[in-house]
Amino acid sequence: MPHAVVLGAGVIGLSTALHLQSQSPYSITLLARDFPLPSETIDAVSQINFTSPWGGAHNRLVPPTNPTEEREHAMSLRTFTHMKTLHSQNPGEAGITFMKGVEYLEAPGPAYKELNDEKAKSLGMEGFRLLRKEEYPDERVTWGCEYDTWCVNPMVFCSFLLRRFVYLGGKVVRREVRDPVEIFGMRDLGEVDVVVNCSGNGFGDEKVFITRGQTCLVANACPVTVTRQNADGSWTFCVPRNFQGGTIIGGTKEPNNWDPNPSPEVRAGLLKKFAATYPCILDSHGGGFQVIKDIVGRRPTRKGGMRLEREQLSNGKSIVHAYGLGGRGYELSWGVAEGVAELLPKPTTRTSKL
Ligand SMILES: Cc1cc2nc3c(=O)[nH]c(=O)nc-3n(C[C@H](O)[C@H](O)[C@H](O)COP(=O)(O)OP(=O)(O)OC[C@H]3O[C@@H](n4cnc5c(N)ncnc54)[C@H](O)[C@@H]3O)c2cc1C
Ligand SMILES: *[C@@H]1O[C@H](CO)[C@@H](O)[C@H](O)[C@H]1NC(C)=O
Ligand SMILES: *[C@@H]1O[C@H](CO)[C@@H](O)[C@H](O)[C@H]1NC(C)=O
Fold it and tell me: Which residues contact 299 (CB under 8 A, 6 or more apart)?
């Protein structure tokens, strides 16, 4: 059987490994430095480059305005359908919650302004409703809507994917590499035909940069996921993680900022702005927030969008690249996994080297 090694056990590597395991003729090994752990034990200093634990993570359906966004939108819809299936087949286990997504915009662009019931339907948005003026949180908000969406508790979800992969026969190796090409020479893995590069921020592609995100994890519950786009370009949002994982209040988007330390002033600002936008989040904790911890993560961003392509090496082997998901890794995860499956070379019979 041909053999593919998936490098990386963030949401992209895990989804890809699980999908290829059942939908490709390859046997699959998952190799990574970092694996999902209970989020309480992930180290904010040594594991800051492992992005998946620090994500929200919610799904936002963004009206596409160019071909890159159209491709991403299609992937987010496929992921939505897949999340529904996973959730219904494994209720309470996969770390997924379905709920309303609420959007408030201070300065909506044309793609938002054009959204109505019909347009939303053509974009595959279920449960869409434009909000009435009385429902806006304040006068600066000039446009709002809600629709059906999902959130995950990242490490509950990722651990579920990992367990499922192993349960269905997948092999796992914890190892750090300097370059994906090294994997072809690792004798203990056996013959390797394809490496799938799901290394997130990994190894010096010049187009890859990080987008720092500071958020704050609170114990307060919230029944919906709320996103507000402010006129100055900043964001005010929450992501209920559920499964005893609290709610994320966010958040910053700071390209090329490598500061690993959370700022207390930023935390105070995020909490204040969110409470003003959605005051009933304070109800579950006597009118205040119960802070669990600050979070700083590094979104693996790439100029021109994610890299999803196959590279043929001179020795007949190939690498399939699947990285640079920025702030949308969870939302697009299953679409990316399907994209990788389409890019895998059709296996030819290998001559035995015994
Ligand atoms: C604050 C914040 C909020 C976010 N909110 C959302 C959200 O609401 N919705 C959403 O969809 N996304 C969200 N994201 C983005 C999302 O978290 C990322 O897009 C996603 O986690 C990227 O996953 P990945 O698998 O590509 O990378 P990673 O999770 O970084 O995984 C990379 C993997 O590669 C391995 N690796 C790297 N280098 C090596 C090496 N040299 N040797 C061996 N292994 C290696 C790592 O160990 C790890 O296993 C958010 C991100 C942040 C920071
Ligand atoms: C994170 O990645 C950067 C860039 O590759 C590297 O310089 C840094 O040492 C990494 N940090 C940790 C804690 O691994
Ligand atoms: C693998 O992915 C990383 C991004 O994580 C990229 O920087 C690197 O160039 C890729 N590896 C190869 C061999 O192209």
Answer: 51, 210, 211, 212, 213, 253, 325, 326, 327, 329
